[in-house]
Amino acid sequence: VCFIPGGLDCSISFVSHVLGKVCVHGRQEEILSVLLPRLMDLTKSDCIWQRICWRLVECVPDRWMEAVLLGFVQRAPGADVLSRLLGNLVVKNKKAQFVVTQKVLLLQYSHTTAVLQNLLGYLSLDSLRRALLIKVLLELLETWGSSSAVKHSPPEQQQYISKAILICLSHLKEHEIESCREELLTSMMEGVKCHLDSSLPQIRCLGMIVAESISSKINTDGPVLKFQYEEDDEARELKSLLVQTPPFCVVPSLPDDDRNEKADAALPSVLESNKKSCTAAPVMPDDESDAELDSDDDLIPYDMSEDKELKVKAPVYIRDCIEVLAGSEDVDKWETTVKALESLVRKNPAATREVSVELAKILLHLEEKTCIEGFGELRQRAQVAVLTTDPIPVAKYLTSQFYSLNYSLRQRIDILDVLVLAAQELSYPKSHGKTKHSGAQKPCIQLLPGSDSSKDWRRIVDERIKSKTRRFAMGRSQVEVAAVPNEFSSVAGHFFFPLIQHFDRPLTTFDLLGEDHLVLGRLVHSLAILMYLAVNTVAVTAMGKALLEFVWALRFHTDSYVRQGLLSCISSVLLSVPKERLLEDMTEELLETQSWLGDVVEKDPDGDCRRLALQNLLLMENLKKKLKAVPS
Amino acid sequence: MALPPPDPQFVLRGTSAAVHTLHFSCGGQERDVPILFSGSENGFIHVWNLKTHRVDAALDGHGRKSVYCVETMGGKDRLLSQGRDQRICLWDLAEGRTSVTDSVFTENVGFCRCSLLKVAQGRWLMAMAAKALEEVQVLELPSKTSVCTLKPEVGAKLGMPMCLKLWQLNCGSQPLLLAGYEDGSVILWSLSMGKALSQLVCHQEPVMSLDFDSEKAKGISGSSEKVLSIWSLNEQQNLQVYKTHSLVNAGISDIAIRPDKKILATAGWDHRIRIFGWKKLKPLAVLDYHTATVHCVSFSDHKNPSERLLAAGSKDHRISIWSIYTQT
């Protein structure tokens, strides 16, 4: 494309048309990979060529503008290059403005971070366009802060929007932030509330990072919002977007690769200045000790072998433990009791059985009196020990307390965890000594309810499904351990049914179907595990039926954590209940569930839900195949 | 084959409250009765007769608030006591009297024991924690005039002064003050200039107690952690850490160096009294008698070396008296 420079008024609208048509037909790659580098070189120093380029893009008809613009944005190596090529297109052309400010940012989310950087950097480089930048930021914040968006949009889209917000923040100057400070603050408050409400840890983390960033921008001198979250790679990447310094100016003579200020502009770490005036540098003791040895030798030391660490004796009897925990003021004794309790309970099963419910009550209400390391874990292990020693009464007590008034969410979730851990312990064959099974991968439930528990269930189910589908061809694997009666079998019902009974009955302080959907999510996951552990027990069929009905009632719940749990429940049912029972007793429920699963696979916004539903459908398929293969 | 540690020579019972402070007065005339003063948590100061091992008198001058410091001012007839009622009382105990002659209202609600130093006949300097958080005030007694107020620099964040020691190199030289603070540092103050000469961070936790040997210019401090810190003063009046000694159990409430500078005793939170040689801090003995934390230790000022005693007061209401290493 050769033009005669020199003031002639050339018409390049034809070229624009061609460009547009080619791009909209999907040939952006071919044409722009040739055109763009040429244009970049030409526009570097030549103003006329810049203007020609601007005209070129401006004349592209509206219906093809999006394709052309996207092509440019994706392929430009930097925001300043984009600025050279497009000029003030977004200000002049309505369609371009719509594409840049609305479509790419709010309606699509498949673009890379580099594209976002280009786009937003481009908006920030000219004073005319900066107004758009602020407008864009406010709109992004509105979306970020809307609770329905947080609940229903996929996590990937939320991450995209968060990245866009952070990049916008990094481009804004002081006075601009001052001007929209109020709006920033209000949106941040609303947004952080919706994000923290979510049950998915990823969403919570995104909310926290964005809120922290906004707060640091608007409160440069005062106290800044600071959350506690795991600093993984994603978090670090997001944070690095905030400190990017924008390239210097739009002078065309700058080289194209000055975008490397991004990660290098890391905030200098503030070193704690040493306030002490004197650092303690030990002076080596004099070596003239020989001369002084005589006078010291006069003093003969006494026997000091008894000088050991001071230890408080732990109680030896269970009833003593109860006394200490229930009312003692002596904190040292209390500490040692807490540490020694689990082993005492396990060593004295008969004594524990006499006082099991009382002990369970005390442990459930036990609060940290002094600062012991791992208090939560110690308490949980003690509770599990009590529960496994005397399952039926203690399970009755715990499940009844789950639905009682005046417990905190933490305590209710503790009850669930303890029940699950105890069930796990009871259902393992004891002859192995430890409760860890050396065979196939067993569920690795974290002792403290971290946010990863949901991932573990998925992993278990995945692996179990994999192993099941393979085993069909290989036949049954060897029995590795000696057969031992399954202790969980007799008590499975006591663990399971009370938990499922009252879920739809709201209390004044506890409403599973309403606000407390976090506990509902944990409950559903726990039920899935209990179901899974109940394999080969007598009650498994009844449990399966009840669980399928429970799932059916809750299948449209809005919280994706709950839905994931429900899908794990179905997996557990399919895996644990023997296939004959599944067919005979639960045919209708299975068919209904299958149609629901198909729905989930197609329409659920959460990727994990879709995956789990797909796995469940596969399981059902395998079941059908197995039944056809086995001669009746 | 090391001998097992000795038993206490005798044990004084009868305070019926935790003992926080002890002070001997045995250096008088031959016929004078050796006395031990003890201050307890119930506000009483007991005057123990060390011949009969009984209480001669019980002084009640602090309104039943805990007494945490007792010192004599030149003999057993004049006593100074400091209590949690924010007062320092001066007592006249001559000829059987038990009256408070004077008192100083300190307005300080801390636990820092005051320190006395005799500078001239009938004149003492007393350093005590003042009303403001980090300040130490020095008064002249008996006139109660303020000599100086020692304020750390702004932003030093030292916390409360925890323990004080006034000393002078020899009679007539400038008095100096060593103060241990809540942040674990020890500061050497010059009273004449009213400013700090040197600061040393000895511990990570508050300095609970310190003692100083002016002849060797070496001092020792104990804290709530497991480390004893020994530091020295060089010619430029700078404090430097000399060495540290690790203990088995954490927490030291009191340290005392014997007047002949041969041994020192520490009172521990682990109910034990430890004896060390002062020259090289060689552990000599661990005296395990008390059943609760030992609050204070004190050496006697007997003129006859073989009669020297060590007293320890504890939370279990007992005062144990030991005769140890008296042959040197």
TrEMBL record, chain A:
Cell compartment(s), UniProt: Cytoplasm; Membrane; Nucleus
Signal peptide: none
GO biological process: 'de novo' cotranslational protein folding
Domain Telomere length regulation protein conserved: 315-423
Gene that encodes it: Telo2
Domain of life: Eukaryota
Gene Ontology MF, one: telomeric DNA binding
Residue span(s) of domain TELO2 ARM repeat: 128-224
Organism of this sequence: Ciccaba nigrolineata
Protein name: Telomere length regulation protein TEL2 homolog
Main location: cytoplasm
Family classification: Belongs to the TEL2 family.
Automatic annotation (TrEMBL), chain B:
Transmembrane segments: none
First and last residues of every WD repeat: 200-241, 287-328
Keyword Repeat: yes
Keywords, sorted A to Z: Repeat, WD repeat
Organism (species): Ciccaba nigrolineata
SMART domains given in the database record: WD40
Source domain of life: Eukaryota
Protein's recorded name: GNB1L protein
Alphabetized Pfam families for the sequence: WD40
Keyword NADP: no
